[in-house]
């Protein structure tokens, strides 16, 4: 069945307009937390991005089933891990890096195109004779583990010196008719997460890593309704960002090594 995307939600067979109220988006105003408890990896946890909205859905006269919820796509991922003069490892999404795609889906990998399947999406089964109100929420953050030593070895040596991550996302609030394939973009949000960490391997465990600017993240941008953007098809389908990414080790001398390949879907 075809997918028809629209920025507007009027005159599409509904008995009124879909209304979005109480729309909020923010990144918690706190620093990234550095966790130095393991002799093999440095862990960090970023503040959460959070979005919420109330969607008032008009009566549905047909037997159609509608879904309304959050869709997230990643448009940029720079993630470099430096090990002094030994080399750099990089998490990257090849399709984004090459320019083959503008976005990659950031779905949970099971419920495309939705970011999740609980508070992230609401379902309206027609026919209905009254308005349906959906309270929708989503949140996202990073909490990876980074090896102290270069990723092609398994030791307790501390060669890690720097970590830099810069990732950008667009979030769409979408109403989707499962019967016809129509999808209406209700609102659009953009956000970005930047992490810069310096590591001094001469220090004891617990005092090696230091968070650099930005300490507090830039707040998300909620676009006005007349500025809504349409998600490209690749933001709505597999693979998702977790499965599309790969970890590559690039030594200063020698050939690069794929440590974690993309997951086939």
UniProtKB/TrEMBL annotation:
Protein name (record): Protein FAM78A
Protein species of origin: Strongylocentrotus purpuratus (Purple sea urchin)
């Amino acid at each position: 069945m075809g997918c028809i995307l629209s920025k507007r939600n009027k005159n599409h067979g509904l008995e009124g307009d879909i209304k979005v109220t109480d729309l909020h988006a923010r990144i918690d105003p706190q620093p990234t937390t550095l966790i130095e408890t393991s002799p093999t990896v440095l862990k960090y946890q970023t503040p959460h991005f959070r979005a919420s909205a109330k969607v008032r859905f008009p009566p549905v006269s047909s037997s159609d089933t509608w879904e309304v919820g959050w869709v997230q796509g990643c448009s940029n991922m720079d993630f470099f891990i430096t090990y002094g003069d030994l080399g750099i490892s990089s998490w990257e999404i090849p399709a984004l890096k090459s320019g083959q795609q503008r976005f990659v889906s950031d779905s949970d990998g099971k419920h495309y195109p939705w970011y999740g399947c609980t508070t992230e999406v609401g379902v309206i089964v027609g026919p209905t004779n009254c308005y349906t109100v959906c309270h929708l929420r989503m949140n996202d953050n990073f909490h990876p583990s980074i090896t102290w030593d270069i990723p092609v070895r398994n030791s307790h040596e501390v060669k890690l010196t720097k970590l830099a991550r810069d990732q950008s996302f667009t979030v769409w609030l979408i109403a989707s008719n499962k019967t016809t394939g129509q999808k209406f973009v209700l609102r659009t949000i953009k956000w970005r997460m930047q992490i810069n960490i310096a590591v001094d391997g001469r220090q004891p465990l617990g005092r090696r890593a230091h968070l650099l600017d930005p300490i507090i993240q830039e707040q998300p941008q909620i676009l006005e309704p007349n500025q809504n953007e349409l998600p490209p098809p690749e933001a709505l389908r597999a693979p998702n960002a977790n499965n599309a990414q790969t970890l590559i080790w690039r030594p200063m001398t020698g050939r690069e090594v794929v440590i974690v390949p993309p997951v086939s879907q």
